[in-house]
Amino acid sequence: MRSLIVAAATRRGRAASSLVSRCLLARPAAAAASPAVPSTLRRPGVLERFGTWAASEEPIPPPVQVSYTQLLINGKFVDAASGKTFPTLDPRTGEVIARVAEGDAEDIDRAVAAARKAFDQGPWPRMTAYERSRILLRFADLVDKHNDEIAALEAWDNGKPYEQAAHTEVPMVARLMRYYAGWVDKIHGLVVPADGPHHVQVLYEPIGVAGQIIPWNFPVLLFAWKVGPALACGNTVVLKTAEQAPLSALYVAKLMHEAGLPDGVLNIVSGFGPTAGTAIASHMDVDKVAFTGSTDTGKIIMDLSARSNVKPVTLELGGKSPFIIMDDADVDHAVELAHFALFFNQGQCCCAGSRTFVHERVYDEFVEKSKARAERRVVGDPFRKGVEQGPQIDDEQFNKILGYIKSGVESQANLVTGGARLGDKGYYIKPTIFSDVQDGMKIAQEEIFGPVQAIFKFNDLGEVIKRANASRYGLAAGLFTNNLNTANTLTRALKAGTVWVNCFDILDAAIPFGGYKMSGFGREKGVDSLKSYLQTKAVVTAIKDAAWL
Q1: Would residue 316 show up in a list of annotated catalytic residues for this protein?
Q2: Which one of 149, 154, 169, 316 is the catalytic residue?
Q3: Strand partners, 432
Q4: d(CA 152, CA 200)
Q5: What b/e readout covers 305-319, taking b as 16+ CB neighbours within 10 angstroms?
Q6: Which of 303, 239, 205 is nearest to 531 (CA)?
Q7: Of 494, 464, 499, nearest in space to 327 by CA
Q8: Which residues contact 126 (CB under 8 A, 6 or more apart)?
Q9: 8 Å CB contact between 508 and 17
Q10: Of 72, 203, 422, 486, which has fewest CB within 10 angstroms of its CB?
Q11: What is the 3-state secondary structure (H, E, C) of 21-84?
């Protein structure tokens, strides 16, 4: 798979930058047959231009077996207390991969009790920082060793290209864990001066039991984003996987225990938002919640956390990121970068460059070349070499994206290419481009979370700044220009947690990531992520006859 910005890494040891995600707490509808293409989208000469691997070939058997489908509580794989299971589906076909234990409030209680005991009485927070660091490093080595199996589970359960998972995302998990392992013995307090005869220490202590809810679009990578800083700070964890893609997190959690993690420190519960997710957010013995998902669900998480024990919350929520292409751009390069910014991971990225603003002087050329690039995009079985785009995660997301495409057509945006499903099996959608998009359209305002590029025209810098900021979201932004003054103006004016200049989706382990406005608060990755998992304590001791103060 060609990737312009996310550099392909070797499978062992050298990780590439990777991306973020979101999750939905609500349980999806049962898998159903995909709908027929709406009549409004059947335009002659549009629907036949793409490859048809998805329609014409049988799915390739995944090179991995599903080994773990139970809940991981107190170091052991166990059934849900209710005995219930739910199916996890292959997005290529809608068929069942496996049935996974369905945890609910009773299972969260069991997991929290195990995490609390491990924190209050267990060895993890009492180990030397050096010993904790060694466990995280051993885990990273095991991730490298099992790279291919983890990537295969991710591609099978999620639909993303295997090459993307194997060469970029799984190596990034190992890189992140080595990054946090390096921080473990560098978290230290301060001694501060007082105005009288007192010795003052500032201590940074682990917060306790961390509840975490991760998304379905980058399951194993977001596992590392959440678990890495929590464990580095000496906390214990109860993590809920996304019900759409639970398999890879269960697999890597097993590797964490092989690395020597004590029982009860990391507990994994697969389940649904209204039951397991709600139980985490409202639990009186959970000390902190970290959530990645929709803005609406983030509000619910905040409310539940406040109504229970006023636990602190960090939220990484939705986005509608602008990508601004100035008139001095190399159009060919800008087309490729904007294509990557939107279509990567089937468009299922919360920081996707989903509002492409193009200066009027290069607009027509950009649209025509973007159309050609989209029609060259290889869509098909994620296990086939060279595939750039696999299926969407499930029928719910598939139908949601087709609904947005229909809205774009009905609002009279210009459907340049795509606009329909690909094949008659699975959740494949043709790469879609709309031009002449207006700011008030639904496809301009709402997060589509799919392979739909919306292209806007602008004519001056002040105008595009105002329009780019006219969103409830502020997760990320990108810009393409050769003018340093323009770049400086835009980077300071755009209301977003990350601004990429002449690049996109550079998300190394040390780079903090998070949003402004309704894209959330708190930061993932980097030193800033550690702050969310630490308490600050001041210790003041009176001293007599001090030689110095």
Answers
A1: yes
A2: 316
A3: 452
A4: 52
A5: beeeeebebbbbbbb
A6: 205
A7: 464
A8: none
A9: yes
A10: 203
A11: CCCCCCCCCCCCCCCCCCHHHCCCCCCCCCCCHHHHCCCCCCCCCCCCCCEEECCEEECCCCCC
CA–CA dist 178, 166 (Å, integer): 18
Report yes or no: 11 and 258 within 8 Å, Cβ to Cβ. no
* Token code pair at residue 104: 């609910």
Single-letter code of the amino acid located at 175: R
- Letter for the amino acid at 370? S
CA distance 231 to 244: 25
Contact 509, 501 (CB under 8 A): no
329: tokens are 């751009």
| CA geometry: angle 149, 271, 143, nearest 5 deg | 25
Q: CB–CB of 58/95 below 8 Å?
A: no
Cβ-defined contacts of 306-314 (< 8 Å, 24+): 307/282, 308/281, 308/282, 308/283, 308/284, 309/284, 311/211, 311/286, 311/287, 312/207, 312/288, 312/532, 313/288, 313/289, 313/522, 314/288, 314/289, 314/290, 314/514, 314/520, 314/521, 314/522, 314/523, 314/532
Of 350, 351, 388, 396, which residue is the catalytic one? 350
d(CA 402, CA 430): 10
**Per-residue pLDDT for the chain (549 aa), expressed as one digit of tens each?**
333 333 333 333 333 333 333 332 332 333 333 333 333 333 333 333 455 444 457 899 999 999 999 999 999 999 999 999 999 999 999 999 999 999 999 999 999 999 999 999 999 999 999 999 999 999 999 999 999 999 999 999 999 999 999 999 999 999 999 999 999 999 999 999 999 999 999 999 999 999 999 999 999 999 999 999 999 999 999 999 999 999 999 999 999 999 999 999 999 999 999 999 999 999 999 999 999 999 999 999 999 999 999 999 999 999 999 999 999 999 999 999 999 999 999 999 999 999 999 999 999 999 999 999 999 999 999 999 999 999 999 999 999 999 999 999 999 999 999 999 999 999 999 999 999 999 999 999 999 999 999 999 999 999 999 999 999 999 999 999 999 999 999 999 999 999 999 999 999 999 999 999 999 999 999 999 999 999 999 999 999 998 998
Token pair 């047959």 in the structure block, residue: 33
Cβ contact 449:473 at 8 Å: no
Taking a C-beta distance cutoff of 8 angstroms, is the pair 347, 379 a contact?
no
- What phi, psi does 192 have (nearest 5°)? -120, 150
CA distances for 464 relative to 98, 327, 358, 515, angstroms: 48, 12, 9, 20
Rounded to an integer, what distance in angstroms lies between the CA atom of residue 38 and that of residue 225? Answer: 39
